[in-house]
């Protein structure tokens, strides 16, 4: 494999590196916010905060793993960042796994905050979660 095709400028490498760092730091901050404010919500909305915590953990882990993968795959050679010989290529698999967790939970969160009657909420919850899972699986 010709790894020169995967060389990236210093600026390009740093932009991606900083965006991934900002992403996982934002998810960590949001995670802390949802954990600390859960008990300040009305009891009927607390499950929404719990779902937010799960989504933030999932998103944080995804972005952290992608940042680590990005950082370890390249080495600065004095002019550009070059893909290391034998380095794992950046994978989208984790992203789809993250979406498989996040999308159905965020859709379920909508149902929870709508405050529907139990039967309607249950029906809509199953519909939203099933549709979210199907969307991710069929799109992959």
Task: Compile the SSE list and pairings.
Elements: H1 10-37, H2 46-73, E1 74-76, E2 81-83, H3 93-114, H4 118-139
Antiparallel strand pairs: 1-2
Quick overview:
With 140 residues, the protein is mainly alpha-helical. The protein is built from four helices and two strands. Strand 1 and strand 2 form a beta hairpin.
Can you characterise this structure?
It is a single chain. With 140 residues, this protein is mainly α. Helices cover 71% and strands 4% of the residues. The protein is built from 4 helices and 2 strands; from the N terminus they run ααββαα. It has a two-stranded antiparallel sheet. It starts with 9 loop residues before the first helix and ends with a helix.
Core attributes:
140 residues; mainly alpha; 4 helices; 71% helix
Mean pLDDT: 91
Cα-atom Rg, whole angstroms?
Answer: 19 Å
Based on helices, strands and strand pairing, what is the structural class? mainly alpha
Element string (H = helix, E = strand): HHEEHH
Sheet with most strands: strand arrangement = 1-2
- What gross morphology would you assign? elongated
């Amino acid at each position: 494999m010709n790894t020169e095709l995967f060389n990236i400028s210093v600026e390009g490498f740093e932009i991606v590196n900083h965006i991934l760092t900002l992403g996982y730091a934002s998810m960590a901050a949001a995670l802390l916010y949802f954990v600390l404010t859960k008990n300040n919500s009305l009891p009927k909305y607390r499950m929404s905060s719990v779902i937010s915590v799960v989504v933030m953990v999932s998103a944080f882990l995804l972005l952290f793993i992608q940042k680590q993968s990005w950082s370890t795959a390249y080495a600065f050679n004095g002019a550009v960042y070059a893909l290391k010989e034998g380095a794992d290529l950046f994978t989208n698999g984790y992203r789809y796994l993250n979406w498989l967790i996040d999308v159905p939970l965020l859709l379920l969160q909508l149902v929870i905050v709508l405050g529907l009657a139990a039967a309607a909420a249950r029906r809509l919850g199953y519909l939203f979660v099933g549709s979210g899972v199907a969307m991710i699986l069929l799109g992959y």
